[in-house]
Design brief:
2 copies of one chain form a homodimer. The radius of gyration of chain A is 19 Å and the shape is globular. In chain A, strands 5-4-3-6-7 form a 5-stranded mixed sheet. In chain A, strands 1-2 form a two-stranded antiparallel ribbon. Chain A contains 11 helices and 7 strands. Chain A has 2 domains: 79 residues, Winged helix-like DNA-binding domain superfamily/Winged helix DNA-binding domain (Arc Repressor Mutant, subunit A, Orthogonal Bundle), CATH 1.10.10.10; 123 residues, 2-Layer Sandwich (Nonspecific Lipid-transfer Protein, Chain A). Chain A binds a DNA duplex (20 and 20 nucleotides) through helix 3 and helix 4.
Chain lengths: 227, 227
DNA sequence: CGGCATCCTCTTTGATACTG
DNA sequence: CAGTATCAAAGAGGATGCCG
């Protein structure tokens, strides 16, 4: 991308990460951690392979991504974010937060991959402390299930099947998020089509306390006037 | 811009504001408030006029910008952000914060316009409460002077000459910012070339208290390894 | 002048094919 | 698996012209 040539940190940031696809590559690496080239390709449907290669080279040159050889058993090249790259989390979250009202209540036409949803889930649940014994939820909302586990060390969110989940949630990502944020009740989201199997108590353990829920600032997935 | 067609709020946000120049247009409107077309053109050196028109139309369609006729004395069309557009402030600040280490210590080759600097100044000073009588500083660091005033109602930052400033600071934006953030002392920035005229006490009134200064998280304008 | 629209050239992107 | 090569289509940049 041609530089804006402005003495302005916003312009400088856009000089580096303002190109098409670039921030989505960062999202992939934030969500998945270490990635192979083909992982990135699958997580970025529609990207041309030459563009992915070119963007990765550019990000590496700017100290945002590192490329390395994985040890012998796998013996492939892997990409990951540098600390400087991880600092882009604030940017990705700010943009993602702003874009929420643009999401329709359910995927329609768009591709949807579960690991995209894992990132905001991790953000929402990551700082929550869950009382009681270790608990596991499985969320089935996209191409792959998501496993949410609580233990003494905190809440973790992973893409993949849970081994012996205490409860399973099946439905749209919007409903799952509304439930976990506390903006809707268990009965509320069930009435809207979320299927809940297993222990309701296990789910309730993950929900915010009522005073924390009231801190939710705006409607999460709003009706966008332009859709 | 072609849509990414992903059910992901980051991708949706980039569908709307990911185009080249778009976030810089938002920066202009955040910094200046109401703008005429030619104000925007001057604040975005290098933009093609058809692109500016196209982006403004796009932003208006998406409810980020409103176009209106100014009342008779001026009788021109003006652009401003909608509330939804103002919410992009978090995005602009996150990107601007991330981009800070990419700024060299002084403009060299890049265009520099004072009102770009007024935005982060406002962010830094806006929440500060200044004790004592109303005070005015003038900062001369770019094409236009910046006036910083403190009064009972808070701190305000405007582009333009101060009427009777208590002190005048002349030098690079980095030095001014380091002083106001408290990461450098008055004597420190003077040693690096910042020229200070008038009442030092007036300036000291704007500086953070020492405990607040220690909260500054990282070097502000770092030496970028790639420059 | 202020606010664009048009035209043309050049660069970037997208789609596909191919390679160590 | 991890890219490079090629080429058509879309977008950006620059100059100019038009209209109130």
């Amino acid at each position: 991308m041609r530089s804006y040539e402005q003495y302005c940190s916003l312009a400088k940031a856009l000089d580096v990460v303002g190109d098409r696809w670039t921030l989505l590559i960062v999202r992939e690496l934030l969500s998945r951690g270490t990635c192979r080239y083909t992982d990135l390709q699958r997580g970025l449907p529609g990207i041309a392979t030459n563009l992915l290669a070119e963007r990765l080279r550019h990000l590496e040159e700017h100290g945002i991504v590192t490329k390395s050889k994985a040890p012998p058993p796998v013996a492939t090249t892997v990409f990951r974010l540098t600390p400087r790259g991880e600092e882009l989390q604030s940017v990705v979250f700010a943009l993602g937060r702003w874009g929420l009202p643009l999401l329709p209540r359910q995927p329609s036409g768009e591709v949807f991959q579960s690991h995209w949803f894992a990132l905001p889930l991790r953000r929402v649940l990551g700082e929550r402390t869950i009382a009681g014994p270790p608990t596991t939820l499985e969320v089935r909302t996209g191409d792959e299930p998501i496993t949410i586990t609580s233990s003494a060390s905190g809440v973790e969110v992973h893409v993949g099947e849970a081994h012996a989940p205490d409860a399973v949630l099946t439905g749209t990502p919007a409903l799952v998020m509304e439930l976990l944020l506390g903006v809707s009740t268990l009965d509320g989201v069930r009435a809207q089509g979320l299927v809940i199997e297993g222990s309701e108590d296990a789910i309730v353990g993950f929900l915010p306390t009522s005073d924390a829920a009231s801190a939710a600032p705006r409607p999460l997935v709003a009706t966008d006037p332009r859709r």
